[in-house]
Amino acid sequence: MHMPESTIHREDQNIETKCLYTEPLPLMDLCRRSIRSALGRQRLRDIDSLPLPQSLKNYLQYQ
C-alpha cells in the first residue's frame, strides 16, 4: 500500500509527540514484558519451573 509522504510524515510526528508527552514505563514493567516476550505465549505456563524466587515468578505472571 502506498501512502503519500505527507501522511507518513504526519504519522511520524504523532508518534514522536505521544512519546514526548507520555510517561515512560517503569524498568520493572519493561523487563517483565521482555521476559514474557522471550518466553512466548506457549511457554508462559512454564514460568513456575524457572529457577527464580516465588515473588518474581508471581510478578512475571501478573499476580
UniProtKB/TrEMBL annotation:
Transmembrane segments: none annotated. It comes from Cricetulus griseus. Pathway: Protein modification; protein ubiquitination. Gene3D superfamilies: SOCS box (1.10.750.20). It comes from the Eukaryota. This is SPRY domain-containing SOCS box protein 4. One of its GO terms (biological process) is intracellular signal transduction. Coiled coil: none annotated. Residues 22-63 form the SOCS box domain. PROSITE patterns: SOCS. It holds the Pfam family SOCS_box.
